[in-house]
């Protein structure tokens, strides 16, 4: 574990940036068409509950990384195995995110550049950052958060002032009732933006005070959920359900539709900047969790030595993962949530919490 | 002016140590011989024999180096006083003679008794006069330091419109005096060191006790004492030997020529390092935001100060990213540019044979050449160069079709932005980084620029200056200090000192300083007294 | 350690010299396409294939006027090629153009009427929507009684780039007159896909000689021999063009679609034909769909505000009651236009107004029953209630017209 400390504000900013990262990439909850924002809001509640589970685990073992306290809860062998599985999970997701990110750049900005070169550049920056440690990452997050905030606010102003939003596109509300929405929540939206908060279990031990973590954490989860829901609603408001569900990146098309004053057009650069910043943070956080997990589990003194080889692994994994973007998306939205994310993000932490709870009771 | 390797230095030192162990002997002739031998009988060494004592039976000599002493004080206060002293008692040559001379005879400001050769030569070379008496061990040194010095004038590099127009000079005493005149407080402590084997340069640390962070003061002291080098020619040497990290283009120590800037920073809890022989004073620790502030911000009112500070941020961004954005937009992301503008730029580029990156590179290099020429030229030829520069670059290159007019505009704006950055050290960093971004933009377009910015921010966030994170107060975010960083709140609102720099003494202002007009004026119902009306 | 940094810098610097990177496009390697025209080829050899014409900007000649000189060669050039699909035709054009085609600034897509009638527009739009370079905010126009290629060949006097002429004409006509609608690609596809709505697209035709219109002499004449103007609205059904609306009918469509910004409505007054003209300043049209006894009822409510623009008869404008009476006749006139538009659409069995979509949004369950035969059965039978409220606020600088004085003389 590093000898670093991060503050509550930095945690707040990290959570917000982390959640933001993916939202531009995936067309979330498109199955329920114009009710996608409702689906996201409902899964925010689930997200808050999951956050509280992770937080409680942290409270049982403050100042210790999960790779350590897994062993304390379920015994050495099983704990180490579980920790190793989680590290693989982080590496896999870091690579998956890298792949999605490279794909989106390859689709609309650099169609002729091979994927590996787009990804290599991102990996270099991520490795460079992670080598410097979590403190530097959090400070960078604080600065870039201001940039992202500025972009979002101005983007919103631009979209609304170009008269593109048509509220009626959001009707009819709850067309098919609440059950498809609930189904969507539990198969898709709960895991993709919110379940990934599990990464933060690796970050909690670095907090310099555990006083306000719960309230600030919950607030940031709710805020990011609202942000995502608002984004989804905006997309549907501007494009309409039929278009929004067919486009790979609805938010991009929304930004592209802005036409003001005949010179503020074709603003996809906006989207590009926000995308790069958001994805960078998510990939960096997953990568950091993997690096620090490995160095903790295998007792390596200099975590930065691990980052180079792991960077290569992530890079090549991202290329190998899927042979086309459709395969990637299909895996991501249909197979992964139930097969991997449900156990790793929900079931195992809850089980661990229950065991820890009983063990704690026994000790007192 | 090269650095000598530290190893060689050690050898020399060993040789010297052999003789400096010895104390000054009592034989006058032996002492004088040794002095002459050591200085190689330099032609500006003056040995002035003098007789003192009752019946003039004491042989004394005054030794000094001409040119670095104040001739008048030697004549009037040293020689004259000794020669005209009437009250010599029956004194045998003992140690007491020096006490008598210094306390009763000579009327100079400060005197010091010396026992070792090392100290003697240090004093002699510093411009003090040495008094040797035959038969007495030791010597007396009297301060007669003088010589030609530049007088206090306007700052050459940091001009402000409103504010004091004084700048430091090369003499360390004058400089410390200028700061003392602003902060008239006994808590302003000064510690002196001599650094540099050959040059024995005076270096002084100044800080306000109780406000400056003790740990940082200790750190500064220990780093200075650790320096083992031949020569300190300028404060830049100290800066490079003491800074936190060398592998970065960003400075971690602030330097300035203005006493009010030093005073302001001292009051915030920083430590000033004065170096004799240069008007540039160092300030530690330094944070990134500091390089975008100028003392003028505090003397003007808050609205204009805030706007100018925000403008400076924009200026800095332009000076780093200007050509890079142009290259990225015209080679990768042409859709960003409005159609009309794109057509114009395309028309201009038709005639240019080079790809955009090479064109930008050529223009930038030419501009750097012009800038260097402007610094090196004697003033007489200055105007010619500006005409040549404008003609060559502006007109001829465009008309010859080597560069496009748009490129010239972009480069010119970037250069202007670079000049407008208040701190020179940051402007230099920006120059180097600009080239890096240009290359990155040419290879990867906007994606490259954004990743480059992220890397730059990561790098900045990882720097520390004497323990303080470089990007305070933005990251880590300290809300209490934001009022004085990018924006400038009205003076009555900035009541706390920067938290990470001055841990001890945080409050700098009282409360309730906001100027309020007289309560009776304005739209007030003057028939009601306070307490009568329906207050909530 | 030294070796490591050395090799690292060597690697990095070698990347820098491959500045001809994959996705990089130098500006002077690009042909900036300003308009994209799609036709059906009529010749024997290529019957039935798509003919794509590009309108490419010559930057030197466009910017030339600002720096003096230029004007000897036209500001745009056109190139044509034929193939079975749009994308292949567009790529084959590289044989004719000395640059790479760059579509990010293509603001206009022209589709010929023949193609729209016979085959429909559904097949040609996918390549445009899928491409990341092509903007979905590009405007679409139908070439009325002409080949799309001819429309993009015409040179226009005011705008150097004639696609700008078309775009601006549509924009300003929609703003001040209203017989046209400004649609971009996104709107068309949305209308095609949404059940209960059909697209409408503005038409452009060529006046005068199309051969002379593409020559430079055309713009050197005060009255150009070949010119283009906006003419009518094309209505579609299931992707195929089935008819044209002109004049008042097309303005009726604009009213219902809430696209009118300002316009002028002329009414008769006491045996004088078209004696008073109403300057519409702003309007708002709301369409609501309700279900009454299982069948849909659409209510269209328009609120209009404006001034009196022109008076050709003696009438006491300073009298408030007269103004109220005038308002009534305006309301009647506008109501007529709207009704006319609806009648025509019903006759063509194409719901171009999106009434079906409104029913869906208000009553999704009922809509399921109506969706199938909406255009043929339910839409023509649907009851439409139109109500208009017109307000006259001001009368310009004068009160009564001087004509009143003339009559008294």
Automatic annotation (TrEMBL), chain A:
InterPro entries: Spore_GerAB. The keyword Membrane applies. It is a multi-pass membrane protein. Pfam families: Spore_permease. The chain crosses the membrane at residues 37-57, 77-95, 107-131, 143-165, 185-207, 228-249, 269-294, 306-323, 335-358. Keywords: Germination, Membrane, Transmembrane, Transmembrane helix, Transport. It is found in: Membrane. The keyword Transcription does not apply. Its main location: membrane. Belongs to the amino acid-polyamine-organocation (APC) superfamily. Spore germination protein (SGP) (TC 2.A.3.9) family. This is Spore germination protein KB. It comes from Peribacillus huizhouensis.
UniProtKB/TrEMBL annotation, chain B:
It is found in: Cell membrane; Membrane. Coiled coil: none annotated. Signal peptide: none annotated. InterPro entries: Spore_Ger, UPF0353/GerABKA_families. Residues 1-22, 503-536 are annotated as: Disordered. The chain crosses the membrane at residues 310-332, 377-396, 402-428, 435-458. Keywords: Membrane, Transmembrane, Transmembrane helix. It is a multi-pass membrane protein. Belongs to the GerABKA family. This is Spore germination protein KA. It comes from Peribacillus huizhouensis. The lineage of its organism: Bacteria, Bacillati, Bacillota, Bacilli, Bacillales.
UniProtKB/TrEMBL annotation, chain C:
Residues 1-23 form the signal peptide. Residues 24-204 form the Spore germination protein N-terminal domain. Coiled coil: none annotated. The keyword tRNA-binding does not apply. Transmembrane segments: none annotated. Pfam families: Spore_GerAC (PF05504), Spore_GerAC_N (PF25198). Its main location: membrane. PANTHER family: SPORE GERMINATION PROTEIN B3. Belongs to the GerABKC lipoprotein family. This is Spore germination protein KC. Gene3D superfamilies: Nutrient germinant receptor protein C, domain 3.
